[in-house]
Amino acid sequence: MDHHPLVSAWIRDLALTHATTTRARYSRILNCLIRDLPEGVSLANCTDREIRTYLAMRAEAGISARTQRQTLSAMRCWSLWAMREGLRMDDPTRLITWPKLPKTRMRPLSAAQLRQLLKLLRDGPPSRRGVSNWQWERNRRALLLMLYAGLRLSEVGALLWEQIDLEARLLYVEDGKGAKDRTLPIHRELLAALYAVPAQERVGSVAGSRKGKPMGPKTMAHICQRWLPSMGIEDVTAHSLRRTCATLMRRNGSDLEAIRGMLGHESLATTEIYLGPDPELLRRGVDQLPDIDALLEAPPDIRALPKRRATGD
């Protein structure tokens, strides 16, 4: 809920350009900021000094650099809107240095992790104690949507049965990241899991509550953070499942344009960065190198190869 009228008006104007989850996050962030601003200071008159003080207080409370950047992003977006509306003369975040994110490379599942997960999805848990059949099937559908359709966590939580055409084997992602829609084919493994749901139960959310209510990203994340570890599978995230989907598509011959379409990226450059170098593709190149005996028998004339400009590395 938007407690401040300036936030409410801004959020309404973002409906055409930002996804529902992004608008909800921005609203939550700015309402928290408003609550902690000094008396007499508002969004309309706060300066970079108040923003810095707020960020320092949050950092002392253990808030991550990523969350700090989200705060700055929300404030910048609001400020630009307020300037257009004549509510502010400037953007107080323009003089603030954004916290640096630690350089972490998100990876797809390892071969061992993927094998373990696929065996669980195929055979079911070794023991059903404490796990209802309904919960198992719902969580399995959610994992298959990430692994075989490349959906984001928020997209899985928001997906409704009315957005799925089983006969045409298509699902429609509405209001995805960047408020973009996309149409995706349904893989046969996912199709079987969807058909397994009785027709009368295909109401509301595909992977939500028993009453069909959608689950938020935090609740949906419990499937990977709590439920899978209880099944003996550790270190699997929604993001790693999405990257695994993209990596498997590339290894099996899909071109970048097809992968971009599945992931919902704006550009091919984003998809290339997202995928990064694939060790298995590099391995194919390395495996083509001759062994020592072959090189000794017929050593190539390296000097005859075309010269390339030195790059310094």
Structural account:
With 313 residues, the protein is mostly helical. The chain has helices at 5-13, 20-36, 48-60, 65-84, 111-123, 133-149, 153-158, 188-195, 217-230, 238-251, 256-263, 268-275, 279-287, 292-297, and strands spanning 164-165, 170-173, 182-185. It is globular and about 75 Å long. Strand 2 (170-173) and strand 3 (182-185) form a beta hairpin. Helix 6 packs across helix 10, helix 10 packs antiparallel against helix 11 and helix 11 packs across helix 12. The protein has two domains: 5-84, DNA polymerase, domain 1 (Orthogonal Bundle), CATH 1.10.150; 111-275, hpI Integrase, Chain A, CATH 1.10.443.10.
Task: Label this structure with key terms.
313 residues; mainly alpha; DNA polymerase, domain 1; hpI Integrase, Chain A; 2 domains; 3-stranded antiparallel beta sheet; 14 helices; 52% helix; globular
Brief characterization of the structure:
The protein is mainly α and 313 residues long. Helices cover 52% and strands 3% of the residues. α2 (20-36) packs across α4 (65-84), α6 crosses α10 and α10 packs antiparallel against α11.
